[in-house]
Amino acid sequence: MLRQSSQRILLQLLRNQAASSLQGAGAQAATNAQQFRGIGGDKIPEYWGRPSAYTEGTNFLGTPKNHLELINKRPLAPDVLEMDGKTPHYKMPWGALSSITNRVTGVALSVGFTGAGYIALTGNLPGLVQSIAATHPILLFPVKFAISYTLIYHYLGALRHFAWDHGKIGNQADKTSLLELPQVELSSKALFGASGALALIAAFM
Questions:
Q1: How far apart are CA 36 and CA 161, in angstroms?
Q2: CA–CA separation, 71 vs 58, rounded Å?
Q3: Hey, where are the domains in the chain?
């Protein structure tokens, strides 16, 4: 009987200790969640920058009094725009612009050829083109330019990628590669310019 009573008392003590540990862990987790509440999309503690039990603060570094307000205004990643929400944060390089345009023209060609193919199979594609040209002649030149530019740009872009894939890549010490930033910017400008000039000529035909 005495052994059973001792076992019950020991079991009760262990249960009380486990419950206290869980309560303490829960309170600590709640405290951590409050301290490290996300500000401006980051896990920055609320006490950051000011004296507290955790830090002496950063007043000596010149931290502004409204630093938490400024943190709340910080843009979330990807930070495409500045804090005013209007000005672009980064200047888009020519290589990125030409790459995006290459993808856009590819999607446009896929959609355009699919639509033209469907109309050709189910109706009269030449008749539709002639009807639009006769009823809306003002649209003829811009439509021809848009179609020509899309075709020419994507074709020339494919040729550039072919040259990149089979050309000399080099290494960090070799600056003659076609993938070096100055060469990429030059080829991107040439791609835009040549496509526009050739599309303009095609639209006048």
A1: 47
A2: 15
A3: 94-204
Give a three-class secondary structure readout of 6-75.
HHHHHHHHHHHHHHHHHHHHHHHHHHHHHHCCCECCECCCCCCCCCCCCCCCCHHHCCCCCHHHHHHCCC
Quote the pLDDT of residue 187. Answer: 94
pLDDT (tens digit, 9 = 90+) per residue, 73-123?
A: 776 666 677 767 777 777 789 999 999 999 999 999 999 999 989 988 998
Q: Find where tokens 């999607």 sit.
A: 107
Architecture of domain 94-204: Up-down Bundle (1.20)
DSSP state of 151: H
Helix (H) / strand (E) element for 88: namely none
Q: Rounded to an integer, what distance in angstroms lies between the CA atom of residue 58 and that of residue 64? A: 9
Please write the tens of the pLDDT for every residue from 28-63: 544 444 444 444 445 555 556 667 777 777 777 777
Task: Write down the residue that tokens 């006769």 correspond to.
Answer: 134
